[in-house]
User: Which sequence fits this backbone?
């Protein structure tokens, strides 16, 4: 069998042949498949937040004193300093009123609360954020714990909604960018493809990279990947999409003479 023959099974957007089949599928089928991939990515993101990040936040809150606040741009802290509040694989929280630099965590992100600002330390360096002078915040267990209990489910819900619809909108934008190059490659490769089919094919081409990124997020949440590997996977998932843009059209059937004149119409299924 020719390795570049076209498949008619449009439910498997992983292999080049499976992706190419979506050129002949309906827009509804493409949306269903993209929604499934978006749901998988959403579940992965929510799982990492709820199991990797949130427990450290809860632990840090439990270490806060009975009284304390941030008022007029200054942290009112009566406890020991420097002090590590909580530390996990992803997050660490500490208090160092003088930002002395004596307390550093191997966590991927560390929030260090000083007298007048919070330092955010990570692989990307250090960022200092001053406390707002016109606002006040609780910095005590009785004040922060109820607020976190109320907001934690809301944060997860917003993360889920943002991830799902954000992915669908991003894929729609990228599909609109990719579909013309895909059609041009198919045209010069003498493959049977019109503009509508090219748009659907481009949308399906994003799914292999999306699956790689979802797997990378799961591995990151499991502690197998660190932040560097996660960023590398993010770059690779873009590269994979570009590879499919170049390769995917060759898995379509060849156009017969006279069929390449009008890209907006096609005698077959659109």
Assistant:
């Amino acid at each position: 069998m020719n390795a570049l023959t076209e498949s008619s099974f449009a439910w498997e957007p992983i292999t080049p042949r499976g992706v190419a089949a979506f050129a002949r599928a309906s827009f509804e089928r493409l949306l269903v498949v993209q929604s499934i991939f978006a749901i998988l990515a959403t579940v992965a993101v929510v799982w990492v937040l709820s199991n990797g990040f949130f427990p450290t936040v809860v632990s840090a809150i439990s270490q806060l004193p009975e009284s304390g606040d941030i008022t007029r741009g200054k942290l009112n802290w009566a406890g020991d300093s420097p002090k590590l509040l909580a530390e996990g694989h992803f997050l660490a929280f500490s208090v160092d009123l003088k930002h002395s630099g004596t307390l550093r965590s191997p966590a991927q992100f560390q929030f260090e609360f000083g007298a007048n600002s919070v330092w955010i330390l990570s692989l990307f360096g250090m960022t200092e954020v001053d406390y707002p002078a016109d606002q006040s915040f609780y910095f005590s267990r009785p004040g922060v714990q109820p607020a976190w209990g109320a907001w934690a489910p809301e944060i997860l819900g917003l993360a889920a909604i943002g991830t799902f619809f954000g992915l669908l909108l991003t894929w729609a934008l990228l599909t609109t960018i990719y579909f013309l190059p895909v059609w041009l490659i198919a045209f010069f490769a003498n493959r049977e493809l019109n503009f509508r089919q090219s748009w659907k094919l481009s949308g399906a081409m994003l799914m292999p990279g999306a699956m790689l990124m979802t797997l990378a997020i799961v591995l990151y949440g499991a502690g197998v990947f660190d932040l560097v590997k996660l960023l590398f996977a993010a770059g690779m998932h873009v590269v994979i999409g570009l590879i499919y843009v170049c390769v995917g059209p060759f898995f379509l059937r060849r156009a017969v003479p006279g069929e390449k004149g009008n890209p907006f119409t096609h005698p077959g299924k659109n």
The helical segments are 16-20, 27-62, 141-188, 195-205, 207-221, 227-247. Residues 65-139 form one domain. The beta strands are 69-71, 74-76, 83-87, 91-95, 109-113, 117-122, 125-130, 136-138. The longest strand covers residues 117-122.
